[in-house]
Amino acid sequence: MTHLYDRQYIDGAWCATQGRDFIKVADPNTGTIVAEVTTGHEEDARRAAQAASAAFPDWSTTALDERVQIVRQWAAALTKRKQALVHAIASEVGTPLKISQVVQVESPLRNVENFITTVQELSWESTLGNSHIAREPFGVVACITPWNFPLHQIVLKLAPALLTGNTVVLKPSELTPQTVQLICEALNEAGFPDGVVNVVNGIGHIVGTEIASHPMVDMVSFTGSTQAGKAVTALAAQSVKKVATELGGKSPSVVLASADLARSVKSTVASCTLNNGQTCSALTRLLVPVELVEQVHALLRQEMPMLNVGCSLDETSRVGPLISQHQQDNVRGLLDQGEEQGATLIAEGGTVPDHGFFVRPCAYAVTEDNTLAFNEIFGPVLSVLTYQDVDEAVRLANATTYGLAAAVWGEESEAIAVAHRIRAGQVDVNGARFNALAPFGGYKQSGVGREGGAFGVEEFLQVKSIQVNLANGG
Fold this sequence. Notes:
Elements lengths: L2 E3 L1 E4 L2 E4 L5 E5 L6 E6 L3 H19 L3 H17 L1 H12 L3 H25 L3 E4 L2 E7 L2 E5 L5 H14 L3 E5 L5 H14 L6 E3 L4 H10 L5 E5 L2 H12 L4 E5 L4 E5 L5 H13 L9 E7 L3 H11 L21 H16 L3 E5 L13 E4 L5 H4 L6 E7 L2 H8 L7 E5 L2 H10 L4 E4 L17 E2 L4 H6 L2 E7 L7
Parallel strand pairs: 1-5, 8-9, 8-11, 9-10, 11-12, 13-14, 13-18, 14-17, 16-17, 18-19
Antiparallel strand pairs: 2-3, 4-5, 6-7, 7-21, 12-20, 15-16
Helix pairs in contact: 1-7, 2-4, 2-6, 3-4, 3-6, 4-5, 7-8, 9-10
């Protein structure tokens, strides 16, 4: 049965779109068309921007405690829909159920409370000499989010934007309509004033272009590919909007000679294949000392076949399908190109089903000029490179246009020293756990700005200084 998603959420009400075309969405496990999404129209985006602009004066002056209460109500409404969200994301993105529950749903729900605590502890006003320093919202924020972590990315933008007094026009991915529907239902249930948060479905070059360039939009927060991020930035620059971007990655995992090889290989494989490789910060390049490469290859031949590949709704699956035929074709095309350029297969994961959009997890030995060594693949593909010394390891780690994430494995002081030399927004040492309060974002073409914690809140605030006369007319 094909489900039709044909409504937008604008100015506090569900409404029909002005669009007339349809986007077909397939079940990634089978390839069967299961949904149609009516494309958004430029007029839908314009109405949403106007509604957000009209709502801004009242929302921005609403007491912080009231804004916190409504955002908490949104989180409560999402929590009521927790199992539905877990199933929807597993069904639409292909994320295996356990990962969908823990990473895709439970983590962002916790993050809402993190943002609430952060804004409550924020120094909204301060004094500097004869200047009064105030932090104020930008106004209308356009939030454009991707399909790979649909709830997580929406929470990272909406929660801090709304808590800090901005109003929002959200353009989510058209490939996750069931997930977006649940999020919109929760927004509607939360009780936001009309126009404070608006959701317009559609494709990027229509809806995304309109909201990124609309004169009533004051800031754009975008997560997606580097190519699309460049286009959004150019559009926003025409009216000098602030732009925050979180873009692509080709993250290195640097194994030093002093590292625990088994642990570093196992953890790198887990990162590379998380969400079926559809993770911007995934560790997709394994850099190893040339003298240890055969041991690393042997460990990969043990680890990769243990990856059970199957339906994302099967509790035993560790790797599911890619989200679409387009994504599957793109990954396979890059693998073919890499093999033509000399990439050598080291190991593969479990056998994949003969239907749906599956790609077998794999590890390749490559040289730095191979397409698999520098292109973001967005699939469960690990590239293994060797180096002669630490200086070469650092050079290879930095030898891409990206700089989103990295890992270093080895004796702690040496690993930390190497971490400081890697040009990436976040570097994990010896498998240190993810910190949701730490700033997340990239160097180079992985983006501008930070998400999460206090740094993520500050992205949605601008600073004003008000100079006053000191006592006695000073």
